[in-house]
Amino acid sequence: MEYIKVPTVIPANPFDAAADSQALRAAMKGLGTDEQAIIDILTSRSNAQRQEIKDNFEAEYERDLIEDLKSELGGTFEAVIIALMTPPIEFLCKHLHKAMAGMGTDEETLLEILCTKTNEEMQEIVSAYEAKYDRPLAEQMCSETSGHFRRLLTLIVTGVRDAKGTVDAEKAKEQAAQLYAAGEAKLGTDEEVFNRIMAHDSFDQLRLVFDEYKQLSGQTIEQAIKHEMDGELHDAMMALVECVQSPAAFFANRLYRAMNGAGTDDTTLIRVIVSRSEIDLGSIKDEFERIYNRTLFSAVTSETSGDYKRALTALMGGA
Fold this sequence. Notes:
The protein is an all-alpha fold.
């Protein structure tokens, strides 16, 4: 079934970058800051329009808009606003880099960003990452991960996946049989077979493969992965399956986990809401309510407060 992407942020029309930069300057000039004016402008413009505002602001006032925003704002509210002002690919590169910096690796963030991308998007990220950090993404990832998990991520990053719409029904039957033979039908698991199929085939093809697998084995592919794998590779495979079947459900679950339990994972909450607002946040909202019987709006408002809450809910398009 075709995935319908519903954004919550669309380009403003009419749009006047000069008027917006003037209004932002007024919101930050003098004593105090008009945070609501900043929210109203930046959450209702596309990222491309925000870049125009930034350029106009610098030309008009000989000031860096991002630096001015940082000097006036703070905490999680500042984090949302700076995320909005960062070009989307650069924003994801920063999060990938942070996920691999220091001790340990944030595998969940790697999976969230990498598993959901087309080859074209992946190529943009790879190019931007090397330009920004002077190190290939695949090389850094290889130094931070290991085993079959590393090989799967490397395949994804090198962009071997077939183009959207590439399907072959007969091949799907063969691949389902290959997966069955590599897992349930033998002692142990041939992870390379799972890696090859999951990283190479288009999402459209994988949906056929999963249907064929259930016909063949009587089990879902999720059940097979649960039985055959553990650790990071299990998590990666499950993330891929979820992305194939319903990207909206994948991100709805990410948001739920970010807000569930003790404390809120603000970094994930901000990243998903900001990065998906111009893509499919409307679809994610619908799926969140379907899965959890609660609106995303109510969940976010109960976990956040003040300007931070107002900025996030504005990006979500309200209730």
